[in-house]
Fold this sequence. Notes:
This protein folds into 2 domains: about 10-200, Glycosyltransferase, CATH 1.50.10; about 205-350, Glycosyltransferase (Alpha/alpha barrel). The protein has a 3-stranded antiparallel β-sheet with strand order 2-5-6, with no helix packed on it. By secondary structure, the chain is of the alpha+beta class. The radius of gyration is 21 Å and the shape is globular. The protein has helices spanning about 50, 55-65, 105-115, 115-135, 160-175, 180-200, 235-250, 255-270, 325-330, 340-350; strands at about 5, 155, 205, 210, 215, 225, 235, 275, 275-280, 285-290, 295-300, 300, 310, 315-320, 335. Helix content is about 35%, strand content about 10%.
Amino acid sequence: MDSTGTTGGRTISKRITFVGSLLVTAFLFAPLSEAQRYRWRDYDDKAVEWFASDEANRIASNILTYQGPHGGFTKNDEMVSKPYDGAPADLYSTFDNGATYGQLPFIAHMYWATEDRTYADACIRVIDYILSAQYPNGGFPQRYPLRSRYSDHITFNDDAMIGVVRLLQTVIEDEAYAFIGQDRLRGVHEAWERGLSCILNAQVVVDGRKTVWCAQHDAGTLEPRGARSYEHPSLSGAESAGILTFLMDQEDPSEEIADAVNAGAAWFEGSGLVGIRLERTDDDRIVVKDPDASPVWARFYEIGSNRPIFSGRDGVIKYSLAEIEHERRNGYSWYGGWGRRVADRYAAWLDR
């Protein structure tokens, strides 16, 4: 039975995940690759001696061959075992799936360990790419240069913009990045401030009340926007959790940040779905009634009604997961425990 439920410093020991916990989900590598098991967190706690090793230098040298002409990196490429051997013109730059903002900390660690200017120059190219990709209002597209597609929207999907803004904050706060120069550091600081402002300004207001965020927002108006055919303008349970976590991580939050956090946490508290759970069978995912189940949250909620919405590749909005085709039903994260993460973090935030 299907139901949507009811809403009730140059310190080399710095871990590479200092950009934020979201980086642990950022792949260096392509799906189905032997190297898929590696993630950025696989280089956590590596000593300076490792970054100065032949192994690290080999890996870093391979990674740099994937740096595109604009300074960013591609996504989902297996970069560790071999250098790029394709056409240079095919290298594109993106922030999707942890790309670009994920590579920079690793390369910076290489520079700190070896003082090889090759790595410093590569870091500077990444920073310059990030600064050039930012919109005047502070937002970041999923991909730059722009392509007149949904990737031009300000993209919170898969933590793209939050990953970039977290990286900018790390560059500001970690004196080990002083090698990029004072002028560039000032640019980074200004970009971070614009990014924070954009996040606050993009929070969706419904009936006069702040709620959460869409996975994509218009680059000009900040209105919610869709992306792929099954990703409609909506309130996003997944991406909004990452945004709120970022805001709660800010020291000495301003009144604007506090208001945004309080409103977002309230939305999550009121949007949990009770009495259901997602059950995985051998070849399908179905929603079943379960009065004892913990609350879950939908990936997308309809703006206005706050009903969970689902969609297949035909782009038709449905209000039940069972109504969309098998491929999309099983090939996308439609439900999750995002609200529990927000609630736990919010409780700690209130107590600090």
